[in-house]
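Appendix B. One record, verbatim.
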Amino acid sequence: MSAARLFRAVVAARLLFAAPPAGAAGFQFGSAPDPDDRPIELGIWYPSDAPAAPKTIGPVQQDVAYYGPVAGKALPLIVISHGTGGSALGHYDTALALADAGFVVVALSHTGDNYKDRAYSFTPRNFTDRPRHVSRVVDFMLNDWDGHDRLDPARIGIFGHSAGAATALILVGGNPDLSLAVLFCRDHPEDWGCRQTRELSGNRPLKAADWTTPDWHHDPRIKAAAL
């Protein structure tokens, strides 16, 4: 990409997701239904005109307007997808900064791959389920969240860390070849992810049949990704 095209792309992205600054960040918990599995736990940060105060939320203290009203209209939405074994609160500092800047932020605890439940971690199911989780969360935010009428459905982005970055890439159109994991772990048996996969499978060697290519879930509503 030429420097001129890159500059135009950056300017376009900034205009697409520009949001007016807010006075404080509000916070509330949420739960998105998932007909294919259990409900998805959420943390939601958003602009609010209510005064912020120190509040212990999970393992950390945040200065937020706890369950304060949402301020603003046509607000851009950012979804945060955590890494393996994380939680909806793992990137609270990033969520606070975005909410202070005028974004609505929803972070989810991925079913089967969070600090309380590792049933799907390091399995093919984790990579197929995670993108669906995000789409279920977007559905909830746009249709059922109390502040859904404050959102701009044309401005949705995702921030993904580690396994969350893979989740984001799949959502915006990526089609991974999971059979390559078999070859990688054959050549790099001491890799942390490969060791975790072996341990969770009872030290059974990976086989290509375990990592067949599924139909990947993409979501065209997501217009930008930070990985």
